[in-house]
Every structure is written in C-alpha cells, then in structure tokens.
C-alpha cells in the first residue's frame, strides 16, 4: 500500500469519525453506512472513472442483487462461452463475477475483468461518483417489497454477527431502526426513490426493476435486460432456448445448490469472510409473514406508502 493511499485512508477515517453515528452506521450525504464501506465510497467518489461501456448493477442490499448480477453476467458473457452459458457462474459466486464499487475500490486498484463491463454498487443515486452520473453508462436498479427486504437484511446481518461472535440485534430493535430510516444504505425509501426518479428522467440510461416482477416472468426480464444492455438475443438464440438456459442457470435452486455457493466463502470486507450461502436464504416473495407480525407489516407498508406518495411508484 502506498504512503499516499495510507494518508488518504487516514483522512477518510478522520472525517468519518466526525459524522453522526448510530450503532455501527455513520451518516453521510443523507444515508447510513457501515464505516468500512464508507471509506470505499468516499474514495470512489474522489477517484473512480468508469469505462464508457460500463453497466452499473445498483440496489439496496438484500433486494436481489446476487440474482441480478448472475443474470446480467450470464447475459453478457453468453457469446464468449460457445454453448456452455455462463460457466463462470458454476465455480464463482456472482459477487466475485461482478465487483462491488465501494468495496473493491477501497482495495485499490479495483480488480476487474475489463471484458465484462459490469460493476455493482449499493451507493444511492445522489451519492454516486460524479464521473458515473455524468457518463453515458447505463444502470440497472433492482428493488423489492420493503418488508421482505428488511427481513432478508435482518437474517443476513444476524448471520454476519454470529460469525463475528457479536450478539445480533433483535428483530424488534432492527425493525425500529429500519422504520426510522437507519439501515445500511438506508433510508430504504430514499434509496428507491433516488433511482426511481432517475429512471423517469433518463429512461434510456436507468432501468428500474422489481424482484417481484422478475420472479413473475424471469424470461421476459432476461430479454429486457439483454435489450437494455445492448446485446439482445438473436432469433436464432431464442430458438435455441438461450433465454431459458440463462433463467435456469441463474435460478435460486440452481445457484444455491452449487458447491461454491453452498460451501464457499468470499471476503465482504477486510475483516471477515462471508459464507456464500448467506446470499441464498429462501428466495421467496412474502417471507416477511414468517418473521414480522401483521401489525409490523402494516406499519412498514404505511411508511412506504407515505414516503412514495406522489412519486408514481408503488412497491
Ligand atoms: P431472502 O433472504 O428473502 O431469501 P441480495 O442478493 O441483494 O443480497 O439479496 C438477497 C436475497 O435474494 C435473498 O432473499 C436471497 O435468498 C435472494 N436470492 C439470491 N439468489 C437468488 C436467485 N437466484 N433467485 C431469486 N432470489 C435470490
């Protein structure tokens, strides 16, 4: 690590130490972040320059990022693989196929396969590096019912904390925080609204998707994604069942049963390795019902409805 990098990291740390803090989240530009990722975000804001062909996979955590990464990776590598569609996904976790801007940027330089023009980020639209917003790069955003996103997040964090021997937050505590906007990259509604408004303003640049719609008709979304990414399926490919091959390859059942995703690990930050299986929990719509009371569900629905009022978006 260069002396310059060390100085920079130190100055980010100093700045971060002055930000408002709740639990392990720091507040920056209207959103809450885990401090370690915040350094990466600030560094990306200062230094990241996209390639003009880059496509950004954007999301709040736990809204279907892993799935969207797998699908977009499979779509854009299909022609390279002469028949064995997306074989890299058989041995690599989707998060290793598509780097995360704020994490990998923090480990300067960002390791990437330049032939695959995909970069992912959880950074809210309003805090994206200016170089990204002012570029012609496309973005694909995925979001999900807030109750399911919260429940998925709670299970994921509890899993991480167990592996660090930290007592997990109770569901009730985490729910209260989430409802007041405090969660990694939250407030959730502001995250969603930022990309929603961008997708209305720049429809050719920002594609806005929901987990629920993708589940309902994955094949139609694979085609839509390919079209948006500028690599539509040819008639020949469609006749050969290429779309369906990608849908199956990236399905929850297929991915979650691969050895790499069942027993592998990857590093999420410099301190811990995360079990890949933590990214594949249930993959269902409506699992919140098994975790939250109907009253909690109604409360979060009310919050979302109020926050999204007038935006034209219903989640
Ligand atoms: P659950 O916790 O509700 O099961 P992210 O990838 O953004 O971290 O989101 C994780 C959520 O997506 C988890 O939801 C996970 O099970 C689900 N998921 C992961 N891979 C999936 C796939 N291939 N198809 C559908 N859902 C998937």
Automatic annotation (TrEMBL):
> Can you tell me which family this protein belongs to?
Belongs to the sulfotransferase 1 family.
Q: Which Pfam families match?
A: Sulfotransfer_1
Keywords of the record, alphabetical order, are: Transferase
**Enzyme Commission number:** 2.8.2.-
Family annotation (InterPro entries):
P-loop_NTPase, Sulfotransferase_dom
Q: Does the keyword Transferase apply?
A: yes
Q: Which GO terms describe its molecular function?
A: sulfotransferase activity
Question: Which residues are in the Sulfotransferase domain?
Answer: 53-312
Q: What is the lineage of its organism?
A: Eukaryota, Viridiplantae, Streptophyta, Embryophyta, Tracheophyta
Q: Can you name this protein?
A: Sulfotransferase
Top-level division of the source organism's lineage: Eukaryota
- Give the source species: Salix brachista
